[in-house]
Amino acid sequence: MTNAYAVQTVNLTKRFKNKTVVRGINLEVPKGEIYGFLGPNGAGKTTTIKMLLGLTRPTEGEAYILGKNIQTSRNQVLGKVGSLVESPSYYGHLTGYENLKIITQVLGLNEKRIDEVLRLVRLEKDAHRLARNYSLGMKQRLGIAAALIGNPELLILDEPTNGLDPAGIQEIRELIKSLPQMTGVTILLSSHLLNEIEQVASIVGIIHGGTCIYQNRLHHLKNQAAKKRIEMEVISVKEAAHSLKQLGWNVYQDQNHLCLDNPAKEEIALLIQSLVQHNFSIYDLRHREQSLEDIFLHLTGKGQSL
Ligand SMILES: Nc1ncnc2c1ncn2[C@@H]1O[C@H](COP(=O)(O)OP(=O)(O)OP(=O)(O)O)[C@@H](O)[C@H]1O
Hints:
Elements: E1 5-16, E2 19-25, E3 28-30, E4 34-38, H1 45-52, E5 60-65, E6 68-69, H2 74-78, E7 81-84, H3 96-107, H4 112-120, H5 136-148, E8 154-158, H6 166-183, E9 186-191, H7 194-200, E10 203-208, E11 211-217, H8 218-226, E12 228-234, H9 237-246, E13 252-254, E14 257-261, H10 265-277, E15 282-289, H11 292-300
Parallel strand pairs: 4-9, 4-10, 7-8, 8-9
Antiparallel strand pairs: 1-2, 1-3, 1-5, 5-6, 10-11, 12-14, 12-15, 13-14
The structure holds adenosine-5'-triphosphate.
The site of adenosine-5'-triphosphate (ATP) has 12 residues, from helix 1.
Keywords: ATP-binding, Nucleotide-binding, Transport
Pfam families: ABC_tran
GO molecular function: ATP binding; ATP hydrolysis activity
């Protein structure tokens, strides 16, 4: 396994009885980056994360965390991983500081580390308030502080903004974005919200129905999204597409439209000429930009919004 990846999985699969909920996925999470693990509810994100953390056993395949197989080197690996899966657990009758102190004692860490992580998650001013009086966003930040206290190389956050209000979401988002630069940590962030992943991740893996259907740098997706196309409503669209293709045009049919990607102005004029010469009447012509949402809908199948 290569050292460039903080997480690498090979054919990772999980079946519950006869139901396959994670199907042969090959994740590659480069070190020092934020990987957005995106998929609708029930797609298999939490199950995958539980396998990465050694909380549930894969039915097939392997997961390598920081170059080590999690099944065979669990204790060695987990010391270098911080995680927040589901809601954070904390003692409400203790302060934020006291909650973190318990963790330093259990892990045998220096108490100095508490102030460092409180600063990282911007809770230093509220450190001595009772955790039960924290807002949801502050509780979540306390959970992230707890995950960071052991100075992990990898931080795994499963839907960390679930249940937060817009201000809380923004706080957590800014925090996540700042962490790799401040600490060098790699972050695997799962979410069902395209817009959340879009704002923080540099790489995205999309899981749908247990299968990883896309994995690449976010800017590749954004480039795809930036593509413009023209859509023409013409008579006999199938025949028109066929004739133009034979003439060397890179056109294609999308539903009732004849489409061409990224055309120059001159190409549009020539295309119209060709259609008219071949007696294909044009009823309408419009430019369209695809949004990231369009691409996700295309990838995940129509009607399956993320
Ligand atoms: N212990 C289990 N036994 C049987 N089925 C399970 C078990 N755990 C999860 N599943 C099923 O596996 C599928 C994937 O669930 P998972 O929680 O991994 O999805 P998810 O992408 O994290 O979605 P969510 O964001 O809703 O948690 C779901 O259909 C779920 O019902």
